[in-house]
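The protein record reproduced below.
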Amino acid sequence: MKPWKTSPDRASILLAAALLLAPALACKGRSQEPGTGASSRDARPAEILSWRHQMLAKERYAQLAGEWESYSRNHPEDVRALIEWGDALRYSGGRDAAIEKYRRAYESGKDDPAAIAAFMASEVANRGAELDWAHSHQELLRAARLDPDLPDTYYTLWLTSLHERDPKSAAVSLRRVVELGDMPQPLLDYAFDMLAGAPRGAIIFTNGDNDTYPPNALQAVEGIRSDVRIVNISLLNTTWYIRLMRDSGVPIDLDDAAVDTLEHRPNELISAQVQKRILEKLRAEASAPPLFYSITVPEENRSIPGPRVLEGLLERVVADGSSPGATGGFDLDRTRELFDTVYRIDGFMDRAIDWNRESSVARLALNFVPLLSRVGTGLLERSPREDGSSYLERAVRLAVFLGEKEQAAKLIEEWQGLDPGSTSLEEARRLVQ
């Protein structure tokens, strides 16, 4: 494999473009059904929602790109249609074509806040170290003044505010996202569970939008668990973010000159190198803060070697190789305690939520199903046996509500093998019928 030829900032921003830096870029309303398309020359095709809310099949995005192309050509004055076309292209894999659409929208509507937000998000996602961050920051502040109620502006504005060391604008950006309802309550509950379930002073590595923005928002808006440090792995490839994390208390023993020398290696990104440096620094400290990966982080992005212990939504990095209280890499008692005393999960079965629109949030909720199941089965397998039926029933109920009846049926089958006499089994079976 040849070494990376792009700059560290540019390479890492490209990595993050599909997740952390992928806001829906037009002013959105209520979602149409994914299969709905334009029925006439003047009918607007289905809007393109951010992956924070909804992910469709790549083929569907390609179809929507064609529909928005046709609509846009018939309505060349419609700047927002260009943005939708760009969104569909981006999610179908046409990044360069999407960038061109965002640029056209910005040039055609320099005072349209959605066009400003779309183009600046594209610039941040694709230009990296070549970007004039100060200009992008000022343009996004202008978009927020033009339309204070456009949520999409604030996601990228938060990033430029971090880069420009503008904490006031960063905090306002997260507050506006919450106030405008762009983070549904179940998503905020998930963020609460991540933060409240962490030990004091913990450092948590996260992966994308829905495990990064919401906990930062709760910290900024409600002051919840400000002692916890959220570190996004994609952004950890950028020199400016490494400095920001270091200066905010994350143990990174690199001065500015050393940060500037970091380079991607053929088989190791900057992020992987920094993750390992953090662990080395923690090992050298007598009272090191606990280090965790969010369970949303894919295994290939977890660069710290050695054992980990699952504690609810977080996996603890076991720096010294020991895992007291855990069996098979799972701390049953701690996870049970979290469900009993900390976690808020009832909102993931709220029928008032448009779960078609919030399908990405529903996927987050499914993380609770195997956790509940492991607690329930673990209690049943203990000697002496403990009653785990309440956890298994909650797992089945949540899986069924979120449309995963096959998963629920497998849970019931396992439950039946461990505790065939459980009085809750019959009710669980009715749920999957």
User: Anything to note?
Assistant: Residues 1-39 have pLDDT under 50 and may be disordered. The two ends are 52 Å apart (CA to CA).
